[in-house]
């Protein structure tokens, strides 16, 4: 196996999360440290979505590890719109300036546990967002 090959978490797991885990996680993800709910709009449908994610605070916003790959709908919607809203620890933030950081620079932005997980999957992509409380 190529050591540089990127092994994302399986798309089947992403589908299961969408229909099984996400509805459950939406009940608490916006209130606990390390979790948030990204509120974004479908780039094609215009429909609002609320996606629970592992979210980490940064100096001027948030960092999200892109564990399912760059084709994740929440990521593509946020990039297309130039931002979204984040519910984090009970507060809403307007998040802007979405930027995908790749390679070791992306991995270095993650907390230690997620750096280890990103090494296992060899997936180093993260999304950075600038945040302003609403």
Supply the key terms.
134 residues; alpha+beta; Pnp Oxidase, Chain A; seven-stranded antiparallel sheet; 4 helices; globular; disordered N terminus
Order of helical and strand elements? HEEEEHEEHHE
State mean pLDDT (0 to 100 scale): 84
How many runs of DSSP E, i.e. beta strands? 7
**Sheet having the most strands:** 7 strands, antiparallel
Q: How helical, in percent, are the residues?
A: 25-40%
Unreliable parts: 1-7
Rounded to the nearest angstrom, the distance between the terminal CA atoms is: 47 Å
Helix-and-strand structural type: alpha+beta
The CATH architecture comes to Roll
CATH superfamily: Electron Transport, Fmn-binding Protein, Chain A
Number of helices: 4
Shape: globular
Gyration radius, to the nearest Å?
14 Å
Strand order of the largest sheet: 2-1-5-6-7-4-3
Detailed description of the structure:
Helices cover 30% and strands 34% of the residues. By secondary structure, it is of the alpha+beta class. A 7-stranded antiparallel beta sheet has the order 2-1-5-6-7-4-3.
Task: Give the SSE layout.
Elements: H1 11-25, E1 35-41, E2 48-54, E3 56-57, E4 61-65, H2 73-81, E5 83-88, E6 91-101, H3 103-108, H4 112-121, E7 126-133
Antiparallel strand pairs: 1-2, 1-5, 3-4, 4-7, 5-6, 6-7
Q: How would you briefly describe this protein structure?
A:
With 134 residues, the chain is of the alpha+beta class.
């Amino acid at each position: 196996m190529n050591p540089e090959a990127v092994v994302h978490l399986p798309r089947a797991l992403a589908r299961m999360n969408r229909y099984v885990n996400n509805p459950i996680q939406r009940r608490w993800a916006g209130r606990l440290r390390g979790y948030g709910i990204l509120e974004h709009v479908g780039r094609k449908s215009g429909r609002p979505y609320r996606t629970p994610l592992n979210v980490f605070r940064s100096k001027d916003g948030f960092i999200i590890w892109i564990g399912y790959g760059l084709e994740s709908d929440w990521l593509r919607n946020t990039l297309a719109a130039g931002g979204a809203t984040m519910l984090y620890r009970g507060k809403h933030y307007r998040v802007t300036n979405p930027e995908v950081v790749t390679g070791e620079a992306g991995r270095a932005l993650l907390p230690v546990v997620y750096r280890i997980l990103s090494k296992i999957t060899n997936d180093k992509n993260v999304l950075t967002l600038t945040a302003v409380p609403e």
